[in-house]
Structures are given as C-alpha cells and as structure tokens.
Amino acid sequence: MSGSYDRALTVFSPDGHLFQVEYASEAVRKGTCAVGVRGGDVVVLGVEKKSVLKLQDPRTVRKICMLDDHVCLAFAGLTADARVLVNKARLECQSHRLTVEDPVSVEYITRYIAQVQQKYTQSGGVRPFGISTLIIGFDSDKIPKLYMTEPSGIYTAWKANAIGRSSKTVREFLEKNYKETMTKEESVKLAVKSLLEVVQTGAKNIEIAVMTSDSIVHHLETEEVERIVAEIEKEKEAEAEKKKKPSSAASTSQ
Amino acid sequence: MCIANKATSTDASSKPPYLSYLLYVILAPSFLFCNGTPYSSSSAASLTSREFPNSITTTTTLSLQDFDSSFPTAPTRYAFDDSDDEELQEDTQGQQSIILKYAPSSSARKTLVVGVTGAGSVLLNALNDERKVVGEVVLSGGDAKPSAFPILEFASANFLLLPCNEAVSTEQAFSWTKAVLEGIKNLERLISVIVLPLHIGETWLHDVHLHFNITLCRVIVLDTFTAAGYITAATHEDEPQPPCLRMLHTSAASPVQNMNIYEPPNLAKGLSAAILSHTEIRSIPAYLILSLQESSYGKTLITDETLAAFVDGLRMLGLGASVEYGVAQQQARKLGSKLDGRVDQHHHRLYL
C-alpha cells in the first residue's frame, strides 16, 4: 500500500500519510534515549551515551549541545542531521541577539527549529530531518521550560518526556513517577532512574545536564552519576526488603 | 602449568568379606550404541542442561599462566624464574576447569572441525545435514559464567563438529586447546561397581576405569580474516573479494590443491593459532581455513559469501555439506551485537 506513496516527500497517500515523515520518526527511534525533566526551579536533560570507539575522540560524540548561553538541546536520531539543525539554530540565536538585542526565548528558538523541520517536509528534492530534539532553558521569567520537536515540525511543551530508543518505556515510567515542583535532587534522580530503565550498562553510559534558574548548565561528572545510581540501587533494595517483611510477619503470626 | 585429571572415586578402605556380599556391576547404557540426540541449531541454547547417559567425563583443572602483576615494570626475566612456590602461585591465580562429556559411537578415526566464534561457529550451526549432539565442552571458572560448547557428530561421516558459540579469549586459547584435544583423545570410561552387602546398611562403591581411545586423524579450524588486516602485494583494484579462501596446514598434513596458502607476513591469531601450534607440535594433521569477511563502518559482517567459501573449503577436505542461509542469519544475530557482525541500530554510527 505504502509502496507508491513513500518515495516522494511531497505526495500524500490516499489515507493522508506522509510516509517519508513517518519514516523519519523511525530514524529517531534508532538513536539512543534522551530524557528531559522539568522540576520546580530546575530542568534536567539526561541522555544515554553511546560507547565511544577506542580511537575516537569522545568530545566529538555529544548528544547535548548548547544553542545559546541559556538554551540547551539534546537530540535523538541521525547525527549529521542534528549537526546541521543545531548550526542553523545557533546562527539564529546570534542573529536574534544582534537584531533584537535580546537573547532568544526558549519558545522562540524551539519554534524556529520546528519551522525548519517542517520546511523540509514540504519541499521537493529534500528529505525530512531524521531527529527529534528536547530543548530546555530559562527565560527572563526564571520559569524552567522543556520543549520537544519532531521530524514533522510539531513542537510541544512538556513537564517530562523522552525521545529515541525505548522512549515509550521511559515515558511510561515518567508518567508514573513524575511529581510537580520537584527539587533539583529529585529531578536529577528521576531523570537517572528513568534512563536506568533502558540503559543496561549503568552510570558509565549516562550523561546528565542540569540547568538552574541562573541559566547555568552543569554537566554532572561520571562519579556524581555513579553516586546517584548507587543511591537509587539502595532505595530499590530497601523497597524490596519492605515488601518482604509484611509477608514474613504474616507467616509468623500464623 | 598444572593439569590434573580428577576422577570421582570412593575409596573403600576395608574390603568387604568376599562371600558375604552380592556383587552388582552397574554399567551405564552401552557405549557401543551412540545415544546422541538429533541436533538442531535451536537446541544449542539448551545444551548446558542436557544429560549424557553415555557420558564419559574428563575434568581437567587448569591453572592460568600469569605473571606477577604486583610489579608491572619488573624485568621480563622475573616472569620465568623458577620459584619454589610456583604451585602456590598457581593456586591463587584462579582455576579454570574444562569438562568434556562425550559419548562416542565408536572408536573410529575422527576429524574434528572447530568453528571459531563468528562465521566459523555460525556455519557449523547452520549446516543442513543431520547432526547429533554427542558431547559438550564446558569451560568454567573465575568470575565469568560457564560457557558450553556442543560437540556434534555428522551422521554420515566420521566428523566431529565443535562450534565455539561463545568466544574463547586469547589468554584461554592455549589451555582450552590442550584440554579439548588431549581430552578427546584420552577419554576414560568409568564403570561404577556397587557392592551390596547381605547386611543392610553397608554399601561400598568401587570405581573401575577403562581406557577408551578416540583417534583424531585430522583437525580442521574455520576462521576468518578481513581485508583491512590482510597484507598482500595486490593493488587496490586486485584486493580480494569474498568468497575468498586461504589456508594454513601443519607439516603433517598434505597440501590441498586449489586452496591458496595464507601468505606471510599474515598471521593466524587467537584460538586458530593455538590449535595449529598444538597440532604441529604433536604432529597431528590440521588445516586452518580462513574465509574473507566483509565489514561495514567498522563492524564485521557474516555474509553468505563468507559462509559459501567455507563450504567450498570443507568440500575440498572431504566434508560435503550444504548451508541453510536463513538459519545462518539467525545464528549470526544470536551471537550478539559484538560478534554477529550485523550493523544493528545500537552500533550504527549514523545515529546518536
């Protein structure tokens, strides 16, 4: 059915599908997981790091990029497409500063990125960007922001979300465990916990970026992430012990 | 290196009075009838729990040769010191054991075909002809979980297949080779003798060992090489393309026509090298068949051409068999993302 309608980007199928755009979402699912969590006065980005090849410089393999001093982006999908889109966004941030003499708002730059992505779903001879992005930042109102863009050009605001591989599992975990007005530690822990649902290898493949209301981004060191993972493991064990105890108490009372 | 054969035995310190006891000899089901079960590649995963009623078990305890790591910069000569406490050092360095269970159908001369982890093991698991599981090599010890390698017998020929479904590390290659090749040759048959006394409550167990020799007339190893690691005088245009076969053989083996030698200065490595070295020293005819393996974005691939080259090579050595390529792809996927060579979504560099 899709065979004749999926080759050209600018052709709808009879049932209203743009197959190339949908295939671009499949490309997003091939990238490793990225999660964003918005707390009370903090916003956290967590990504699953891919293992770097032996001779590779790890600095050139980053999923979290700064668009401006106060805006941070994480992506999932085609690396090269992300590079191009991030460069366009950075240019726009600086252009906005020069033109308007103000830094971009998080929503503005998100809308810009989404517009670029949408443009590439409506032209001939091009293909959609095969990435989804999570954009975090603080505006002058000091309220944390988290947005997501998709290959289709949609952008939406979120309290917490995940993109990339196994994002559905992570999103379900976030839905169960998210609380309003979390502190910085709680937000970071939630981001790490949600990534641990899908990252098999543990702390060494998790990268966390935390942005506070002063718009400073702090990348957690591996040791800090390991400490948080250790705390999470302890809490899990304690919960497992608690669950065992009522049943043993019940059996002794008999 | 300390190798000890461990045989289970219960020593009766006092012989029972001869006339007071009935003697029962319990034999495991006759070793003349092979109880090997039909083998399917899907059953490879369940081999570790399989019982071998005809099992002839040889347990070989190995010690790892290792150098004292507390002085990493010590001169090399210290590594070869004859030390009185050498045995003590071996004991503290971790023991590995290889258990060989084998129920031979006969003591005929056998050719052992070893498939090194990767394309070699995938090929042996995907051969079309009927194979029977007749044994198992279990490598255990240290922190790693035990690895099991099935030993398969071809129904129509005197061939034993040993696909290495899990990787044997370079450090273990020599000890693994020695234990397996020596173990297959010198299997002992254990007959348990239970002596039941007329008086209830007294039992003695005697063990009687019978020697049962398997003759390995040939060893064939299936391994791969990549174009990137292949040193050749050929220009870029003449670079080898799969299917491409190269061969090494021991001096006891006769050369094979129509198969090119793996030219120097190219080297065989790892398990293949260990097996060839072992067989060369012991004058066992052995062949190493190397098939060219393709790669993409740094990951090696197990393609049909690579496997087809193996089939040609085995045919030239007297083992005619065909491959089920669909099964081969499944086996390649089972090997895991590290070894199967498939450029999968977890490792493809296009995506981050």
UniProtKB/TrEMBL annotation, chain A:
GO terms for cellular component: cytoplasm; nucleus; proteasome core complex, alpha-subunit complex. Pfam families: Proteasome (PF00227), Proteasome_A_N (PF10584). The keyword Calcium does not apply. Its main location: cytoplasm. SUPFAM superfamilies: N-terminal nucleophile aminohydrolases (Ntn hydrolases). Keywords: Cytoplasm, Nucleus, Proteasome. InterPro entries: Ntn_hydrolases_N (IPR029055), Proteasome_alpha (IPR050115), Proteasome_alpha-type (IPR023332), Proteasome_asu_N (IPR000426), Proteasome_sua/b (IPR001353). Residues 5-27 form the Proteasome alpha-type subunits domain. It is found in: Cytoplasm; Nucleus. Gene3D superfamilies: Glutamine Phosphoribosylpyrophosphate, subunit 1, domain 1. Residues 235-254 are annotated as: Disordered. The keyword Oxidoreductase does not apply. One of its GO terms (biological process) is ubiquitin-dependent protein catabolic process. The 26S proteasome consists of a 20S proteasome core and two 19S regulatory subunits. Belongs to the peptidase T1A family. This is Proteasome subunit alpha type.
UniProtKB/TrEMBL annotation, chain B:
GO terms for biological process: proteasome core complex assembly. Belongs to the PSMG1 family. Transmembrane segments: none annotated. InterPro entries: Proteasome_assmbl_chp_1. One of its GO terms (cellular component) is endoplasmic reticulum. It comes from the Eukaryota. It comes from Jimgerdemannia flammicorona. GO terms for molecular function: proteasome binding. This is Proteasome assembly chaperone 1. The lineage of its organism: Eukaryota, Fungi, Fungi incertae sedis, Mucoromycota, Mucoromycotina. Keywords: Chaperone. It holds the Pfam family PAC1.
